[in-house]
Amino acid sequence: MTIVNIKKNDKTCIINYTGFIVRILLAIISINSYAQVNLVPNPGFENNTGCPSGENQLYLVNDWYAPTDGIPEYFHTCNIGWWGIPQNIDGYENTQKGEAYVGIYTFYLYFNYGCDYLQTELLDTLEHGNTYYVLRDYHIYLR
Questions:
Q1: Domain containing residue 50
Q2: Residue 96 located in a structural domain
């Protein structure tokens, strides 16, 4: 154990003491933390049965499907054309990580197509009383 003599106006000791308190708090918080399990299969849309070559090819993505007549678009780095990454038919967008993403239209201004949806079945059942968090990167593209 180290004893520190703190002098009046000694900011170094205060900063070191504050850093010590922060480390203790982080240690206490980490003791009470639990590992989080991702219940979403293929969350990065990377497991697939082929490279997208046109519109409406969500069926190539394992575990994901469109439940309506909407047409979610599948983009992957394996395509160097309109369905590729980062340059594609909808503009220019890199992935946050990995090699794929899916694009959906939530509103059609000039057409009566409705909206695009995509869904998957979770890997486990949600339990009453538990808190679940949905974290997903999204980008808005206005055409």
A1: 9-143
A2: yes
Secondary structure class of 102 (helix, strand, coil)? strand
How many domains, in total, are found in the chain?
Answer: 1
User: Does residue 3 belong to any structural domain of this protein?
Assistant: no
23: exposed, middle or buried (C-beta count within 10 Å: 0-12, 13-18, 19+)? exposed
The two tokens of residue 78 are: 């394996």
Q: Helices then strands (H, E): number in the chain?
A: 1, 4
Q: What is the largest CA-CA distance in the chain?
A: 74
| pLDDT tens for each residue of 62-85 | 999 988 888 889 999 999 889 999
In a domain, 116, yes or no: yes
CB 90 within 8 A of CB 55: no
CA torsion 32-35-38-42 (nearest 10°) is: 150
**pTM for the full predicted model:** 0.68
Nearest to 49 by CA among 57, 40, 60, 59: 60
* Cα 84 → chain centroid: 19
